[in-house]
Amino acid sequence: MDKSWMHSDRRSKAYEFGVETFLNFAVENLLTTTHISCPCVKCVNLKLFGVGIIRDHVYFNGIDQSYKNWTFHGEPWEATTNASRNVEEDDGHSRYSFVSEEIDMDDNDFGDFGSDPYEFANVIGDGDQPVYPGCRKYTKLSALVKLYNLKAKHGMSDVCFTELLILQGDLLPEGNTIPTSMYEAKKTLCALGLSYEKMHACPNDCILYRKEYEDSTNCPTCGISRWKEGKDSILKEGVPAKVVWYFPPIPRFKRMFQSHETTKSLTWHAARKSIDGQMSHPADSPSWKLLDDKWPEFGNEPRNLRLALSSDGFNPHSSLSSRYSCWPVILVTYNLPPWLCMKRKFMMLTLLISGPKQPENDIEVYLEPLIDDLKSLWVGIRGVYDAHNGEYFTLRAALMWTINDFPAYGNLSGCVVKGYKACPICGDDTPSHRLKNGHKICYIGHRKWLPINHSYRRQRAAFNGKPEYGIPPEPLTGEEVLHMVENGDRVCWKKKSIFFDLEYWKYLPVRHALDVMHIEKNVCDSIIGTLLEIPRKNKDGIAARLDLLNMGVKTDLQPK
Q1: Is the peptide bond before 328 cis (omega within 30 degrees of 0)?
Q2: Residue 12 neighbours by CB distance under 10 Å
Q3: Rounded to whole angstroms, how far apart are CA atoms 165 and 159?
Q4: If we measure between CA atoms, which residue out of 91, 126, 122 comes closest to residue 107?
Q5: For 384, which DSSP code?
Q6: What pLDDT is stored for residue 377 in this prediction?
């Protein structure tokens, strides 16, 4: 079929004749005049209209000239032709956009294609197979994605989902392609999934059974068995006592660059400029600029990734009485614009550490495979395909900092976060005071961070009965911290952080950041609980009054 009219002047007779030929072709193949994909440059086949509206759109907006294979309008699609590849690549609109709409995925989530960025089109043959003969609205793949989305959203069991599939197969006409079991559905959807590694771990968080310990059956540190112990105290050989799931980030970073639109977004930071001189994006931060200045070969490539790592424990069970703690480890890509980098589909789960107890300081045991991949990313991953520029390049990445609440901050950084020396900035000079009646340690030297002439510095009664004339200490650099932990300073540091294995980590000015949400929530709970005298939330108790009396502060509030 002649499609040269798509490049003609919209005022020409050739364009007018071509539009009518196209519309007649669409109506004949789709057997409808009211629900046809509009191929204009604004709708790009994402919206359905009647013939009249599509005719107006194509004349006023112009037809999408990259739409060379009319697959949305009944033309047979051949996955191996260059024409079909352009449909998928141009303007970043994927042929399988229904998948991203249903399960909040981006095009970068569609499997690992290796060196061929078009391999996905060859793997997913079900994307063109109708769910039953004559169906124009759903294919086998789109129907399964929608059903699987319902399963995840409403927490269906595998048995329930299997019975639902059987019922759907009975309700649809004969010849339908709905699978009859959960197993068959998973086999169909496996190409959309992410590969992961299931690693066995010591129940006491001593080691991961990988590398030199891969074939071990007992932990070399504590001697406990690798296998789970049954109720009859008999070891179930082959059933691990503890498992950690690792989702390698490198294949997913490769997939991010195989999406035209995502690749453009990943270099967004290179074109922006800070107008007011304020920090509105991590690209304005000292850590970002240090990477650019100290390693110019890294900073000169805008496609190199800057990452942040976040981890915290949560209870996956609905019962709040359960103390089960599961720890996900998530990577965030800061190359993306602010309105995208914190979207769920761009937050990359890399580790899932099972419970029942939290790993605490031994979390670095589980971070070993991730650190190995981060080392490889710093050296460079060759042969990454850039869909926007149509070329292969060497991808590098750097971890800029971690984001956690204060207890997890201590687990990842190795810093003491409890006791008399709990301030990571003040260290040995932390101004702490133990409350005799409250049996807690309070830290009352926070006024030193105020401007030197601030009125709060001179107030006595509102604080601890003393004025504050001290100056804030300078935070330790990464090199100073590394020197302290390597030379046995265990007063303020529990261990050497595993992140120091990264070549650049000791040079970063900010290595760990606190999650403000946790701080705001806890402070707000305490204030509201005290003001409203909420039971078990009120901080104004008999112990607090007695401690004020012992400190000589607000003696008029002593209990009677």
Answers
A1: no
A2: 11
A3: 10
A4: 91
A5: E
A6: 95
CB 283 within 8 A of CB 272: yes
Residue at token pair 């981006």: 106
The two tokens of residue 451 are: 């401007």
DSSP 127-164: GGSBSSTT-SS-BHHHHHHHHHHHHHHHT--HHHHHHH
The amino acid that residue 254 corresponds to is: K
| Amino acid letter, residue 52 | G
208 forms beta bridges with 201
Q: Which two tokens stand for residue 541?
A: 């108790």
- Identify the H or E element spanning 185: helix 182-189
Q: What is the dihedral of CA 542, 548, 554, 556, to 10 degrees?
A: 40
- Side-chain half-sphere of 151: how many Cα atoms within 13 Å? 18
C-alpha distances (whole Å) from 389 to each of 110, 120, 311, 421 are 20, 19, 34, 53
Q: Is 6 buried (19+), middle (13-18) or exposed (0-12) by CB count in 10 A? A: buried
Spatial contact of 403 and 409, defined as CB atoms under 8 Å apart: no
C-alpha 95/C-alpha 39 separation (Å) is: 13
Q: What is the pLDDT of residues 324-338, one digit of tens each?
A: 888 999 999 999 998
CA gap 463, 445 in Å, rounded: 10
Residue 318: φ, ψ to 5°: -75, -25
Tokens of 366: 């589980």
C-alpha span between 328 and 343 (Å, rounded): 17
Q: Rounded distance, CA 379 to CA 373, Å?
A: 10
Could you give the CA distance from residue 540 to residue 363 in angstroms, rounded to a whole number? 37
The residues near 530 (Cβ < 8 Å, ≥ 6 apart) are 537, 538, 539, 540
Is pTM, for the whole model, over 0.85? no
How many residues can be counted in the chain? Answer: 560
Distances (CA, A) of 530 to 54, 516, 539, 540, 560: 63, 21, 6, 6, 19
Q: How far is CA 519 from CA 360, 431, 432, 440, in A?
A: 20, 20, 19, 18
The answer to whether residue 296 scores a pLDDT higher than 50 is yes
- Residue range 71-91, pLDDT digits in tens: 888 887 543 334 333 334 444
